Amino acid sequence: MKIPFSPPYIDQDILDEVMDALKSGWITTGPKTKQFERDIAEYCGVPKVLCVNSATAGLELMLRWYGVKEGDEVIVPAYTYSATANVVLHCGATPVMVDIQDNFLIDLEKIEAAITPKTKVIIPVDIFGYPCDFDKLMALVQRADIKAKFHPNTEEQKTLGRIMILDDAAHSVGAAYKGKKVGSQADAVVFSFHAVKNLTTAEGGAICLAFDQYFDVENVYRQLNIKSLHGQTKDAMSKTQTGAWRYDIVEAGYKFNMPDVLAAIGLATMKKYESYILPRRKEIFERYTAGFSKYEWAQLPEYYNADKVSCYHVFPLRIKNITEAERDALIDKMAAAEVSVNVHFQPLPLLTLYKNLGYKMSDYPNSWDHYSREISLPVYPNLTEEQVDFVIHTMVNAVESILAAKSV
Ligand SMILES: Cc1ncc(COP(=O)(O)O)c(C=O)c1O
Q1: CB of 76 shorter than 6 A to ligand 1
Q2: Which of 31, 35, 88, 220 is the most exposed place for a label (fewest CB within 10 A)?
Q3: 193 CA distance to ligand 1 centroid (A)?
Q4: What's the pLDDT tens digit per position in 112-140?
Q5: How far is Cα 339 from Cα 336, in angstroms, rounded to an integer?
Q6: What is the pTM of this model?
Q7: 273-407 has which CATH code?
Q8: Which CATH architecture has domain 12-264?
Q9: Residues 387, 286: contact at Cβ < 8 Å?
């Protein structure tokens, strides 16, 4: 039984919406993108949302807007995808990596120890769709002694008066924290709609502007719009209105806008996200959990507690007491049975770029431990119960043969 890892969810409604964009005469940023922004804002309960062409672009845009630059530090988890740290490097600043807890989320106590007078932003990651401990993070940056360490360099930094929490919510559209959808709990929250995400636009992202207590978010939205399109004072649609050709360029901005033809995929998917896609992903998580819970060797992921619930993006199974090489051998056995699995993620200090910058894997023992024993299992709406059972059965056989070989 051939089982892919994470094919995109595409149905007739999505095809129809994309076709509508294609036939409309307007395919780049326009009415569908703006509608998608309003839909996300309503779904997440945030005052303003800007769509961009990736989460990477969204994170970088927010760092640039906040004035992060050379000499500044930004705290990130050591266990994440490289985008979280690369955007910091793009700005010339230093990513300060912090180890994770057993639930894969950044370790709050270690964050506190990593804060210095150079810290401008913390980028926690809602890894695998499981939200971070937002209240604790926000309380930490609002504490008087932590605020006293903060040295603002820009008007935005002076206005906020503290470290900004920029949530990397690439995985967590639809997850909930204390009864509310992720989006409003940090200063700004950035989603990804990349092809493998729960809610995709092929490539895309969105920035939720939640810091309306501090900033006029309509004004920040305007500033970010300009920054995301070459510093141009008019967006593409208004510039092409009859006679409205003249524009100005006020800064060397970026090219981060989301086109309508992609927003159309997101618009149509959004309509069934809560009613079909999330419940179906939840069922798969529950079936894996029930299937593996009888095996002593299986370490199951935490995906809800009293405060929060995941959006079931990645199911990270860990096998107790195996080595990295044994984990890799398990993946080979799954591949031989035509089941595609994955590893999320190689901790950043394992990768050449960060190694060359001086980060050492031995400084992040928990990241190493969880990575070395982790296998991500397929989760997507079209995965049938029969296929889920086949994944479980194949994995059980593979693990038991590895464990048997170990005990000989
Ligand atoms: C944790 C995390 N952050 C950021 C990103 C970047 O998302 P995008 O591909 O939309 O730029 C990803 C992508 O997979 C990710 O996994």
Answers
A1: no
A2: 31
A3: 9
A4: 999 999 999 999 999 999 999 999 999 99
A5: 7
A6: 0.98
A7: 3.90.1150.10
A8: 3-Layer(aba) Sandwich (3.40)
A9: no
